[in-house]
Amino acid sequence: MSFVEDSEINFASFPTDQLIELSYVSKATNDMGILGLMNLLEDAVHKNKRNGITGVLFYDNRIFGQILEGYPQHVELIWKAIIADPRHSELQVLDISPLQKRRFSNWSMKFYGSDEISQYVPELKMGLRDTNATLPGEILTLMRSVSDQNEEVKQQDQQARSA
User: Fold this and answer.
1) What domains are defined for the chain?
2) Residue 57 backbone phi and psi in degrees, to 5
3) Which of 13-22, 96-105, 117-126 comes out lowest in average pLDDT?
């Protein structure tokens, strides 16, 4: 199921014991500022931990990109809170699909701001700056690439430790 309207998401169509991944982009209604982002992230981390949600959140130039992972009933709770959050507008679901294993298992919510995006995934920063110019599938691929880069760093660390 790709690129669906939020009203079309049927979380009950997934088995309750099946991990799923939901990704979306949205526009912030106002510039968040560092304090606003810190408050949002702290709130997200607590809600996600309570609900067994992992994932990653990107923010740059009033654009959010996020991937949520968890069981359908928990992802649905978080998704409903995001939809109701007045800080978000123009929400666009990129994908919702079954997941064999968590990509972001160590992160109840990893955050990437402008500086981190530039450092680790420069292509993503360009994609988030102008969501109209970039295909949603490209944005999703770029967001998922963060987990791939995280795995590469873990493997390099393990190799360095065993050397």
Assistant:
1) 6-162 (3.30.70.100)
2) -125, 130
3) 117-126
CA–CA distance, 105 with 103 (Å, rounded to integer): 6
Contact 134, 99 (CB under 8 A): no
Which is nearest to 153 in space by CA: 101, 102, 106, 99?
106
Q: Is the dihedral of CA 99, 102, 103, 108 positive or negative?
A: positive
Strands 54-60 and 88-98: unpaired
pTM for the model stands at 0.74
CB 20 within 8 Å of CB 103: no
Structure tokens at 41: 């992230």
In the chain, what percentage of residues exceed pLDDT 70?
A: 64
- Write down the pLDDT at residue 5: 47
**Residue 40: which pLDDT band, with cuts at 50, 70 and 90?**
confident
Residues in the chain, overall count = 163
